[in-house]
Structures are given as C-alpha cells and as structure tokens.
Amino acid sequence: MLTNFLPLQVNQLKDSEAIAFVKSIETIALTTCLSQQPILTTYIHKGCGGTPILLLHGFDSSILEFRHLLPLLAAQNETWAVDLLGNGFTQRLKEIQYSPNTIKLHLYEFWKTLINQPIILIGASMGGATAIDFTLTYPEVVKSLVLINSLGYTCAPTFSKYLFPPFDFLAVEYLRQRHILAFNVGSILPNLDTKILSAIGCAMLHQEMPLWYDAMISYVKSGGYSDLANSISQVDKPTLILWGEADDILPLEDAEKFHQDIANSRLIKLKNCGHAPQIEQPHMTYKHILQYRKHQNF
Prior knowledge:
This protein is an alpha/beta fold. The chain has 10 helices and 8 strands. It has an 8-stranded mixed sheet, sandwiched between helices.
C-alpha cells in the first residue's frame, strides 16, 4: 500500500513515474491562524542548491500535475511543490472558509516553516493567480515569477458566488463527473495511449479526499480570483510567462495582457501545447525555466 494518508484509489496507479512521485509525498502538521488544530499539508521536496523553487498547481488539482516537471527542475535546483489549501491531498477542515485569502495565509505558513528564504515561485493556471496574489502581499519572499497559462484576467462568472443548494453541489459535482466520464471512456478505447489514462487517473485522485465537496463549494462561493486583474500591473518581479498556444481554457490574449501589464516580463508561446505545458511538454517547460533562471542569475 502506498502512503496511508492518500485515498485507497492511489493503489490503482499503473504508471511507474506517477507511483514513484506519490511515494515521495511528505506531510507536515502546519500550525496556522486558520484553525485551532494543525492542517496536515502535503508536499514534495527534492534537489539542492540555487534559489529554491516552489511549484503551485491549478484549480481542483494536486502536486501530481508536476510529476514530470519537478524531477527535471530538482536535478539542478532545490525544488518544492505543495498542495494548496482546499486542494490536492492537504487536509480539509470544516471550520475553514476556502478562498484566495486563506490559500495565501496557508501558503505563507508553509513557506515560513519549511523554506524561509526568497524563492522562485512557479504557478500554473489558478496557481499562477495564487503566485501573483502571494507576491503582491509578500514581496520580500519572491525573487522571480514563472506563470504557466495563468489565471488572472479570465475568471469564473461572478454569479458563482451566489449559488445555493443544490446548485452549488451540482456545480462541483460536474468537476468530478467530467473526470469520471473521461476515465471510463478512455478505459474502453482499444488504442488510447496508457499515459493519457494515467493522467486522468492522477487528475481525479484527490477528489476522493474527505470534505472535497465542502472545500470546492466554499471556494467557488468566495468568487475566486475575480478581483485580481486590476492588481497584475503592480507586479515588479522578473516574470517568465509560458503559454501553450492551443489552450482551450484560457485565451491566448491573456498571455499578451500579462506581458503588457508586467513591466519586467518575457513571454514564450509553446506550439502544439494546450493548457498544461507542465504535463504536455515538461522538458520544453523545464528548458525555458532553466534558461530564464540562468539569465536572471538565480
């Protein structure tokens, strides 16, 4: 059996790379101002040397989305990935209201407790919005940013914060059912690449964690990062923007907006790549991050 704090479904993983990554997951009982009891927080830490890198995953995801990219980065640099509050395999508590603010407070305590030195902060999708918000609040913590198909301009519709039962539950259940449908369909297709099926399995694994529904509903009702767009121009850190040109979730125009609004930024568009370059093109993503890190002397 793999690590006992994970759902039993983790034992169904077939991909050796994913299994090895899961075995590297660690936990810390993190003391925060958000609850009286510590929050069991899941993370991975590999490599040594250089400015520490911290990876932030996307919405309703987990550190498993970095199973290809993190080992590449860790070969050159100390590298961390953490399951954000309300996401991944990090413990969910009923008394916490899940929102960008509580995510940020939890992330700061994680950084302060385990890293406690300036970092290169890499955020993918919603993790990019978290990275921007975190950088603006704690500028002394972040030396540079990498945004991968980042949320920031295109956000959830404002009506989502006004959803009430049972529509809030149904909205969240849709997230789970689309993964289940994709996995079930993929399982019966004779010529489907097994890596695709493994990727779907990894993407849905955290949804079996206790209180997943409660945390997702709470976050959706918070409105998410809908107010972030007007603050993006305040980012003054060196910023690399990586963007899969075939993204079917966030428009390519958002990449141009990031580049225009963040003064010290560089935009690289990745051909034949969708919303998740860290999964679809991990070696190319690693190459660009490494080159940028060397260029910035970090």
